[in-house]
Specification:
2 copies of one chain form a homodimer.
Chain A (H helix, E strand, L loop, with lengths): L1 H5 L11 H17 L6 H8 L3 H5 L5 H25 L4 H22 L1 H12 L3 H24 L8 H16 L1 H4 L9 H13 L2
């Protein structure tokens, strides 16, 4: 968790400081009640019982706190993805697991923790570092699956690997990006399966 | 144009009435200046110089006027699509034209007529009849291209036709639906080509 947190932008001081975790936990709760947009650093300071200056010793802005929350939350999604993909029996199976787990975890976030979801969607629309890291990691997992499938002969090798990876990432987006998923919630049962089917047909050798 | 207008929801009286066209034209201009959400039927009535009651003789709500504008605007996009697809030399070529024209026309709308674009995006997010008709027509064109490609042997026939059509429509969405396109504007040069490539690989026999 500390590794993820320390990679976030706008943080100050030692990464594993207890106070940092306290601020993030309190902010998480506060954003959960009042929303990210409506909360100021002053509100947070009052709620936690710290001075604003003290909070600024650890984070250089509200966004930096938002990024830390986002990284934690997206880190949890990624951990599920890693576990599920690792259990895949083939590149094909791994791809299905990647997509399925991403959709399941992201929609769970939407239904069970709406305010946190909104921080994630905001982060994505503003191109925060936490969101970019997240997407970079998903791209990395996808690329690894594609390489494995090309080596094992499951997937075609004619199309340049980076083009294949980019196009697949794009077609997954509407169900993976928090900002877009909310427009597709009535489709999450069937659509990801059918899109995965289309992608796998496109990968046939 | 009248056929399109008369198929819209919430309209009253004869479809080809001049007054109806006048109201739509004036509303279009008014929404263009002040936005759809901020304009009331009273504002429109004042601006046009008609009584509110007179406007209600032709449209049963502001939404009905919005739908008429939307149908006109989306009808123009569809007309371009039909022309371009008709010039396609094969099902493959037709599919590329369908996608390319949709992206080009929809993004033009965004850049050249933002307020109109916003009525279209609103319509799409609210599931208005005008938007549903539009999507239905795109689905219809897609289905026809798929049938042609299956008959000519360009496309595979193993996957059920309706599943293929649904999945392709889904992957086109982020660049075709006004509501989603605005999140992808920095990708409109390359991404639609690469997605079309992926779709066509998935269709290979």
């Amino acid at each position: 968790m500390n590794e993820i947190a320390s990679s976030s932008a706008g943080q100050r001081g030692p990464a594993d400081h207890d106070i940092r975790d306290q601020i993030v936990a309190a902010a998480n709760k506060h954003f959960g009640h009042f929303g990210y947009a409506k909360t100021t650093v002053s509100d947070l300071a009052k709620a936690i019982g710290f001075s604003k200056a003290y909070i600024y010793k650890f984070f250089d802005s509200k966004q930096a706190i938002g990024e830390a929350i986002c990284s934690q939350c997206l880190g949890t999604v990624l951990a599920s993805v890693h576990t599920s993909v690792a259990e895949g029996k083939s590149a094909t199976d791994k791809f299905r697991r990647l997509f399925q787990t991403l959709v399941a975890r992201t929609s769970e976030l939407f239904f069970n923790d709406r305010q946190l979801y909104e921080v994630a969607a905001y982060s994505s629309s503003e191109g925060w570092q936490s969101s970019r890291n997240y997407e970079e990691q998903i791209r990395g997992i996808l690329l690894e699956i594609l390489r494995e499938g090309r080596e094992s002969g499951e997937f075609e090798r004619k199309t340049p690997l980076d083009e294949t990876a980019r196009a697949i990432f794009l077609v997954m987006q509407p169900f993976v990006k928090p900002l877009l998923l909310q427009h597709n919630l009535d489709l999450i049962d069937e659509a990801p399966k059918e899109i995965a089917g289309l992608v796998l047909r496109s990968l046939a050798p």
